[in-house]
Specification:
Layout (H helix, E strand, L loop, with lengths): L1 H23 L8 H16 L3 H27 L7 H21 L2 H9 L1 H15 L3
Helix pairs in contact: 1-2, 1-3, 2-3, 3-4, 4-6
Amino acid sequence: MHKFIFVLATIAAMTASLNAAAQQGQSSELPDPLELAAKMADQLENDLELDAVQVFKVDTLFQHIYKEYYAEVEKLSKAGVPATSGQYLRASDKWGDYSDKVLQTILSEEQWAKYLKGNGGKNKKAREKRMEKDRY
């Protein structure tokens, strides 16, 4: 579970770094989306006892999400959107919501319940609250 928290903290730091670089108009050394996807898949495999097929699906899901999220953030940056803009958080929430919806179809009911009991569930609730009230 501690590793999962570490991975989520890494993602948050990556997002903050990308946003700061976007605001300053600089390129930033960010973790490779394929590496992040592999780390997330490995972490969920350990935490939720995923089988090989689930690991493959989760890895594929995160590869897609990270690539698309990076592209969206880069587009915002090139458009001159300030890093303090809620548009970056909105993009993160959109892809987080998508991730949860797909993860729920990949995981068993027991695995999904365990995922929701951890930080995944806390993040999901906070994201849903922001999205519901459009707090950006």
